Amino acid sequence: MTIEMLEKELKEGKLSEIYLFYGEETYLMEACVKKIKKLFGEMVKGINYVEIDDTNLEQLISDLQTPSFGYPKKLVVVKNTGLFKREVKKKGAGFQELRDKICGYIKENGEDIKKDNVLIFIEESVDKGKMLSCLEEIGANICNFEYQKLQNIVARLKAICKAYEVNVEDGTLKYFVECVRSEFARFNE
Which residues are CB-neighbours of 45 under 8 A, at least 6 positions away? Predict the structure, then answer.
């Protein structure tokens, strides 16, 4: 799934059950997560909204199994856990076993997960492997938020300017983007 397709679905109010977002374009990724949260509606942490990271990953299965009390579904956001990386030596053998257990649970209970949850995996990068195959198998929406090319950024800025009824030439927007990029690079030195 492309970023544009995902944004179109979210704009139309379509909410899928399982997502995997990864890539360098964190601004667009976070914007899509915010749109999903807005579409999801009211969120009460611990009741119908759960955040999982590498410190509490072992709770993922039990959180997926626990019903959201008083709400039709639960939003589970799993962020930067390393589940989709091949290299897990630093995390130890226990992590490999946990990843296999999570993958097995998702494969076996995909329909129940979809019925009761909206599950979002957010990772910096993803390697082809067991977890990715597992999500592909159950029909998850997988979106790579690749670094945006200049023409894509200019098109997005043009749309924003148009929404505010501001006319700006493409050359001016390109210059703006280049200035921001060079300032950002200088800032990160």
Answer: 51
